[in-house]
Structure formats: structure tokens, C-alpha cells
Design brief:
This protein has 709 residues and is mainly alpha-helical. The chain folds into 3 domains: 43-143 and 182-314, Growth Hormone, Chain: A, CATH 1.20.1250.20; 370-465 and 557-686, Up-down Bundle (Growth Hormone, Chain: A); 490-551, no CATH class. The protein has 26 helices and 8 strands. The chain has helices at 17-25, 37-43, 48-71, 73-80, 84-102, 104-108, 114-138, 154-158, 179-202, 206-217, 223-234, 236-248, 276-291, 309-318, 320-324, 334-340, 344-347, 353-368, 371-402, 406-434, 439-457, 561-576, 579-588, 595-611, 613-623, 644-698; strands spanning 469-470, 503-505, 510-512, 522-527, 532-537, 548-550, 626-632, 635-642. The strands form 2 sheets. Strands 1-3-2-6-5-4 form a 6-stranded mixed beta sheet, with no helix packed on it. Strands 7-8 form a two-stranded antiparallel sheet. A hairpin with a 2-residue loop joins β7 (626-632) and β8 (635-642). α3 packs antiparallel against α13, α7 runs antiparallel to α10 and α7 (114-138) packs antiparallel against α13. The radius of gyration is 32 Å and the shape is globular. Its main location: membrane. The chain crosses the membrane at residues 89-110, 117-138, 188-213, 225-253, 273-297, 372-394, 406-432, 444-464, 560-587, 608-631, 651-673. One of its GO terms (cellular component) is apical plasma membrane. Belongs to the organo anion transporter (TC 2.A.60) family.
């Protein structure tokens, strides 16, 4: 009868070979599973299709949590007083932990239980996401006016122009500082840096182990389809991250501990801080749920034996003429497949860790000798630098340049920019396949795509809004006299040096950093049907004493944000045309046995040379355009006002610089490919007379056509 028919409680001590063979074959998706419940249960997780589904959802959630910080970068800056350089460094720390360990994935390979390693990595990512929210819970509630006392009714009084004797005591920013405050700030920032590092470490095993697991146990004909589905679902992650950021930033940051009297801020107020931490909680929960199935997948599962029926029908219609002259990948002999895996990837399991570290630099230098590989990787470094800077600071750039809210900026990016990236990648792959492009054709397509991207980037220098006039910051005394920071009209006022409660004079479109700096001594609230409007009156520094409105002055060209982002999206789509052809150039530019290692080296260089330094470079460039810093304990904190023209020229200029570098590299790639093609034709023309001479010597019976290769 065998052990299968025995009682459920009896477990055979030594399973025989037939039992193992039956377990390995009958539990496949196409086979007939045994009726015993003990055998039916594991068969659910012996299905590669289920693994593809789970891995798609996991990578979607992982990219959502890693991309969420970029959607709320300006909010985190305002909440914790960070400069753009510091926030860029924070965003790049996601790559530090990833880069430090990604090389060892090639070493461990199939030695470990890959699904469980993916599960452990996902749990670490979820814990890192929870750690990112910790600064919100250990920090004091957000006070949008540092000069205001604890009780909210005096917030407005602290910003008014009051006589020195009756004004609330306002000490300079250093007076409110203590060693505890400074230590708390450093600990909060340190926690976020540690969390970002752990996010990178947790993501190390997810993609490499998942792709190799699918490729090992899927049918050879189905593997490309599964990987295509995986990448298509995964690429929606950043778009969902920006969509989630758009929703969360509409909620107030202290939604879990709102004051009794509520808050007087609106989402358009420059002091508004959204619930940035809530998105990390949601994304971490999604990652934790997606990690559960990986602890039930086996270390190895039976290889899929059947090709998908609908894929077979599609191939029969589209590729039947082309497949007649080609050998199907599934018909390769086992010997041929093992011969291709020669080199470091194959010998890595036979090396110790120390030996692997010693061998790796030599193999790295050997791979970098290929000129096509080196030039294509350099061009991709330029493209990735552009993408890293754009993804990190584009929301903040749109906020400052066009005076829109963080929520609206994230919504536009999630709806326009990321779909255009996906379209560009897909179109590039379709062009390579339909036009049957060789190396020269792939190089020409890359160069054409980048030239068009560069062309459509030129109008971006001229689409934007100039900075409006700010009293005491933008000095245009000839047009509007009395814009000094402390004019004579407010000598009687006791204005706080570090206060920030902007008001706008609608008649002259001049902005003051507080009502006190405008000389206003009273406040009026005008109730309307949908919202209340706050006015400040009796303003001695305003022309004709007109009342001023609470909040920053509205921009006159906010409508240009949509054309600007459409051009950015078009340029992103054109740049992403190069994704597939450049990847093909890398695969065809190195030896067959070095392909896997070349791809690993490519991603390592992209992380080290692009994704790590680029956010810091862009953040430093943005900081150089700041014209008014907030001070915290004597140090520069967040920037309150930028020179918009300088900000646009430097941010778009950096993007233009990286795009130009990519164009130069692809031009050199095309030149090298044409030179190699020319040399190959020369060798072929030199060898053809020798072939004809051999034909004449062998006899006139053979025709010249028989010698064609």
C-alpha cells in the first residue's frame, strides 16, 4: 500500500525513492496530485505562477515604501528642519546598505533557501518602514510658529506689531535651545538614516533571488513572460508611492494628537506639514503581508513542464515563420545550458567568501576592458543620475517654482511622469523586437532617443515663475520703497527674528514674513460659506495702510505647471527608449560566460556612481539658490524662500548636463560599433578571394553560391 495510504498520524521514518519521485512530479501544476490532504497542501506553493504573483506584489510594495520618502521630501524637511543636501543624503542612504551587500548575492546564489531569504528581507524592509515613523512619535507636536506659546489663541498675538512693553517676550532662536533639544534632533535624524540603510539591506535578496527562482523553475518559454509581468507590475510601485503621498499629505501631521481648538492652517499655507509618517505605516503593512507566503514556498520546486496555452497560440500566429529556422530555447540540451554558465557565476559556489572577494576585482577589471560595456554603463550612469535627482526633488521643485501644494505636485507626478516612463520602456522594447535591431541599430536608437530628449529639455529653462517680492529679502527699493527688513515704520514693533507667518499685500503683491514685519496691529477673521479668510489691519508698512491677507502671495503662472510636467514626461519617455536597447548592447558587448556578472557590475556602478551621489548633488545645488533660511539653535535649518529663476536654471541645468553626458557616451558607442562593423566587413572581403581561389583549385563542379555562409 505504501506510506501514502497510512493513517494521518503515521510518518514513515525513511521515505523511499518512489515516494520522493511521486512528490516531485505529481504535485506539479500540470500533473495529477494525490488525494491525500498532506500532499495536496504543499502543492499550492509548488506552483511557479503563484510565486510570480506573490513576487510581483512584494516588489510593488517594496518600491512603494522605498519611493514614498521622495514624495514627502519637502514635508520631512519642514518638519525636522533639514536642508536639501541633508534630505538628499537621507534619500541616497537607501542605496548604501543595498550596494554594500548586493555583490554577495552572486556568491550565495542557490546555496540558501531563496524564498525564505526573500521573506526575511521583506520583514526587514517592513521593520525599517516602521522605524521611519518613530521620529514622529518621539518628537513633540509640530508647532508651525516657533514664537508662539503653547496655547493656540496667542499664536496670532505673537505675530502682531505690539509695543515693546506689551509684546510677548521673544528670545532669539538660540535662547530656546538646550542640550536635550539638540540631542533629540540628532537622534531623530539618526533614526531616519538607520531606517533608510535597513530599507536598502532588506531589499538586497528580494529582486535577484526572485528573478533567479522564477528563471530556474519556470518553463523556458514561459520565463520571459513571467519576468515581463513581474517588471510591469513592479514599475507601478513608484507611481503608487506618489499617489499615496498625495493622499497622506492632505492630512495634518499631528492627526493623531490634534489640539482641542483645532488648527488655523490650510493646505495652501507654506507652514503646512502633512501626515508624512502615515504613508510609511501603510506601505510597511503592505510589505509585511506580502512577505508571509515566502515562508511556505519550497527551496526547490519541480520545473514547469508545460508552456502556457495562450502564449503558444500567440506565438503560433506571430512567430511561426521565424521559429521554423530557429531552435526553441526549450530544446537546448542540458550540456549546452551548463556550458553557457562559465566564469565567476559558475565557480562562485566552489569558492569561500575570502576567495570570492579576492577573485572579484580581477574579474571586474577584465569586464571593464570591453569598450562597449564601459561606454554604455557610463551613459546609463548619466541617465540614472538624472532620474535620481528628478525623482527625489521634482515634487519640491514644482512646489517652489509654481507655488502649488505638495499633495497636488505628487498627484501630477504620479499621473503623468511615471506612466510615461513605463510607456518609454515598452516602446523601446517593441522597436528592438519589431525592427530586429542589431548592435548598430540599438546604438542608433539610443542616440536618437537621447538627442530628442535633449531637444525637448531646452524649453524647460524658460517655463517657470519668478520670485515675487518679499520685504527685506528681495531688494527692489526703486519700485516699492520701504522693503528693508526693519524699516522705520516698524521701529515701535517688537518683531521676532525667527518668526514665520507670511502675509501678502494684494495691491502690490509684496509678501512679509510676519504681520509684525508689515506693521499690522490687529487681526480680523471674515467668515464665508466654505472657509474663513484671515486679514491683518492697521498695517503701518503697507501702502495706504491696506489690509493684508494671511498666507503667501499666489503665483501668477501656476497654470504653467501642467505644460512643464508634460515636457518633463515626454523627455522621460524618450530617455527610457534607451532602456532595452542599451541593455541589449551590454549583453552583446561581453562574452557569453560573463553576461550575468556584467549585469551585476552594471547595477553596482549605477548605485555607486548615480543613485548614491546624485540626490546629494541636486540637494546641494538647490541649497545654493536659497535666499532666506530658518534658524534653529544657531544653525541653518529649512529654507523658506528661494530665488526661483536661479533654482530653475540650476535644477534643469544639472538635468541637461547629465543628458548631454549620456548623448556623448551613446555617440561614442555608435562610433565604436560602426568601426567594429567596418573592420568585420574588411576581414570578410579579404577572406572572400581566398575562398574563391579554393573553389577554383577544388574544381569547376562547385558553384560559388555553395561557399556563402
Amino acid at each position: 500500500m505504501g506510506p501514502r495510504i497510512g493513517p494521518a498520524g503515521e510518518v514513515p521514518q525513511v521515505p523511499d525513492k518512489e515516494t520522493k519521485a511521486t512528490m516531485g512530479t505529481e504535485n506539479t501544476p500540470g500533473g495529477k496530485a494525490s488525494r491525500d490532504p498532506q500532499d495536496v497542501r504543499p502543492s499550492v506553493f509548488h506552483n511557479i505562477k503563484l510565486f510570480v504573483l506573490c513576487h510581483s506584489l512584494l516588489q510593488l510594495a517594496q518600491l512603494m515604501i522605498s519611493g514614498y520618502l521622495k514624495s514627502s521630501i519637502s514635508t520631512v524637511e519642514k518638519r525636522f528642519g533639514l536642508s536639501s543636501q541633508t534630505s538628499g543624503l537621507l534619500a541616497s542612504f537607501n542605496e548604501v546598505g543595498n550596494t554594500a551587500l548586493i555583490v554577495f548575492v552572486s556568491y550565495f546564489g542557490s546555496r540558501v533557501h531563496r524564498p525564505r531569504m526573500i521573506g526575511y528581507g521583506a520583514i526587514l524592509v517592513a521593520l525599517a518602514g516602521l522605524l521611519m515613523t518613530l521620529p514622529h512619535f518621539i518628537s513633540e507636536p509640530y508647532r508651525y510658529d516657533s514664537t508662539s506659546p503653547e496655547d493656540m489663541p496667542q499664536d496670532f498675538k505673537a505675530s502682531l506689531c505690539l509695543p515693546t512693553t506689551s509684546a510677548p517676550a521673544s528670545a532669539p532662536s538660540n535662547g530656546n535651545c538646550s542640550s536635550y533639544t539638540e540631542t533629540q534632533h540628532l537622534s531623530v535624524v539618526g533614526i531616519m538614516f538607520v531606517a533608510q540603510t535597513l530599507l536598502g539591506v532588506g531589499g538586497v535578496p528580494i529582486q535577484p533571488f526572485g528573478i533567479s527562482y522564477i528563471d530556474d523553475f519556470a518553463h523556458n518559454s514561459n520565463s520571459p513572460l513571467y519576468l515581463g509581468i513581474l517588471f510591469a507590475v513592479t514599475m507601478m510601485g513608484p507611481g503608487l508611492a506618489f499617489g499615496l503621498g498625495s493622499l497622506m499629505l492632505r492630512l495634518y501631521v499631528d492627526i493623531n494628537q490634534m489640539p482641542e481648538g483645532g488648527i488655523s492652517l490650510t493646505i495652501k499655507d507654506p507652514r503646512w506639514v502633512g501626515a508624512w509618517w502615515l504613508g510609511f505605516l501603510i506601505a510597511a503593512g503592505a510589505v509585511a503581508l506580502a512577505a508571509i507566503p515566502y515562508f511556505f514556498f519550497p527551496k526547490e520546486m519541480p520545473k514547469e513542464k508545460r508552456e502556457l496555452q495562450f502564449r503558444r497560440k500567440v506565438l503560433a500566429v506571430t512567430d511561426s515563420p521565424a521559429r521554423k529556422g530557429k531552435e526553441s530555447p526549450s530544446k537546448q540540451s542540458p550540456g549546452e545550458s551548463t556550458k553557457k554558465q562559465d566564469g565567476l557565476v559558475q565557480i562562485a559556489p566552489n569558492l569561500t567568501v575570502i576567495q570570492f572577494i579576492k577573485v572579484f576585482p580581477r574579474v571586474l577589471l577584465q569586464t571593464l576592458r570591453h569598450p562597449i560595456f564601459l561606454l554604455v554603463v557610463l551613459s546609463q550612469v548619466c541617465l540614472s543620475s538624472m532620474a535620481a535627482g528628478m525623482a527625489t526633488f521634482l515634487p519640491k521643485f514644482l512646489e517652489r517654482q509654481f507655488s502649488i501644494t505638495a499633495s497636488y505636485a505628487n498627484l501630477l507626478i504620479g499621473c503623468l511622469s511615471f506612466p510615461s516612463v513605463i510607456v518609454g520602456i515598452v516602446v523601446g522594447g517593441v522597436l528592438v523586437k519589431r525592427l530586429h535591431l542589431g548592435p548598430v541599430g540599438c546604438g542608433a536608437l539610443c542616440l536618437l532617443g537621447m538627442l530628442l530628449c535633449l531637444f525637448f529639455s531646452l524649453p524647460l529653462f524658460f517655463i517657470g515663475c519668478s520670485s515675487h517680492q518679499i520685504a527685506g529679502i528681495t531688494h527692489q527699493t526703486s519700485a516699492h520703497p520701504g522693503l528693508e527688513l526693519f524699516p522705520s515704520c516698524m521701529e515701535a514693533c517688537s518683531c521676532p527674528l525667527d518668526g514665520f507667518n507670511p502675509v501678502c499685500d494684494p495691491s502690490t503683491r509684496v509678501e512679509y514674513i510676519t504681520p509684525c514685519h508689515a506693521g499690522c496691529s490687529s487681526r480680523v477673521v471674515q467668515d464665508a460659506l466654505d472657509k474663513s479668510q484671515v486679514f491683518y489691519t492697521n498695517c503701518s508698512c503697507v501702502v495706504e495702510g491696506n489690509p493684508v491677507l494671511a498666507g503667501s502671495c499666489d503665483s501668477t503662472c501656476s497654470h504653467l505647471v501642467v505644460p512643464f510636467l508634460l515636457l518633463v514626461s515626454l523627455g522621460s519617455a524618450l530617455a527610457c527608449l534607451t532602456h532595452t536597447p542599451s541593455f541589449m548592447l551590454i549583453l552583446r558587448g561581453v562574452k557569453k560566460e560573463d553576461k550575468t556578472l556584467a549585469v551585476g557590475i552594471q547595477f553596482m556602478f549605477l548605485r555607486i556612481l548615480a543613485w548614491m551621489p546624485s540626490p546629494v548633488i541636486h540637494g546641494s545645488a538647490i541649497d545654493t539658490t536659497c535666499v532666506h533660511w530658518a534658524l534653529s539653535c544657531g544653525r541653518r535649518a529649512v529654507c523658506r524662500y528661494y530665488n526661483n529663476d536661479l533654482l530653475r536654471n540650476r535644477f534643469i541645468g544639472l538635468q541637461f548636463f547629465f543628458k548631454t553626458g549620456s548623448v556623448i557616451c551613446f555617440a561614442l558607442v555608435l562610433a565604436v560599433l560602426r568601426q567594429q562593423d567596418k573592420e568585420a566587413r574588411t576581414k570578410e572581403s579579404r577572406s572572400s578571394p581566398a575562398v574563391e581561389q579554393q573553389l577554383l583549385v577544388s574544381g569547376p563542379g562547385k558553384k560559388p553560391e555553395d561557399s556563402r555562409v
